[in-house]
Design brief:
By secondary structure, this protein is of the alpha/beta class. The protein is built from eight helices and seven strands; from the N terminus they run βαβαβαβαβαβααβα. A seven-stranded parallel beta sheet has the order 3-2-1-4-5-6-7, sandwiched between helices. α4 packs parallel to α5. The protein is globular and about 50 Å long.
Length: 231
């Protein structure tokens, strides 16, 4: 069976995508910081018959990243690497004039440096896979100037550029950066706690991600709403 590593997989889009892959027969290596919640997700996904390795930890830890890739190798390799774990930099978000620099460093470390570190750890297995792919979860804040989203958006813009260059440097792989659009997630609630407007469930984004796997378009940046509208 194909094997996917998914970071930030205990809740939200990470869990929803993991469940869709488990239902398709994928084996999974899942990461999140909350061990109890992550184990609950793993137990639920095992009901699909998938082999699920749950490894709680922080993606900024090189040893944890190595353990994720080692866990995937035990299941057969790495066919898909999903960088979904994210840090805001400040909770709630604030204007750049007040953004704590340590918070910005944390956002860059989680959203950019750790994502690249995990790719580098997994590259030999991805290159050996029949259809190796990397999927990074971006944001419209990476391309649009939204007040208070400057630090987070800058980190996601950097991640987009890394994904674009990786796609050029690794023509044998598919490297997709995906802007999922608005979603009702814990991350958004922490970013803007006073916003009570309804937002789509992350499950609604999953068909867009599955379309990338099914059709394997060229490496590049994709918006989930556009992928869904074109079906």
């Amino acid at each position: 069976m194909p094997v996917a590593i998914i970071t930030g997989a205990s809740k939200g889009l990470g869990r929803a995508f993991a469940e869709a892959l488990a239902a398709r027969g994928w084996d999974l290596v899942l990461d999140a910081r909350d061990a109890e919640v992550l184990q609950g997700t793993a137990t639920a996904l095992e009901a699909y018959g998938a082999r699920v390795t749950a490894l709680p930890g922080d993606v900024t830890d090189a040893g944890h990243r190595a353990a994720l890739v080692a866990g995937a190798r035990l299941l057969g390799g790495v066919d898909l690497l999903v960088s979904n774990a994210s840090a805001l930099g400040a909770e709630p978000l604030g204007r750049l004039a007040e953004l704590p620099l340590d918070g910005l460093r944390r956002a860059l470390e989680v959203n950019v440096v750790a994502a690249l570190g995990l790719v580098r750890e997994a590259l030999p297995s991805l290159r050996a896979a029949p259809a190796g792919a990397v999927l990074t979860v971006s944001s419209d804040a990476a391309a649009e100037a939204y007040e208070t989203w400057g630090g987070y958006g800058a980190s996601k813009a950097a991640l987009d550029q890394l994904a674009a260059v990786l796609g050029a440097e690794e023509p044998g792989l598919r490297v997709w950066a995906v802007d999922p659009g608005d979603m009702a997630t814990d991350l958004y609630a922490a970013a803007v706690p006073d916003d009570d407007d309804p937002r789509p469930d992350p499950v609604s984004v999953v068909p867009a991600l599955l379309r990338l796997l099914d059709e394997r378009p060229a490496s590049g940046r994709y918006g989930a709403p556009a992928l869904l509208e074109e079906r």
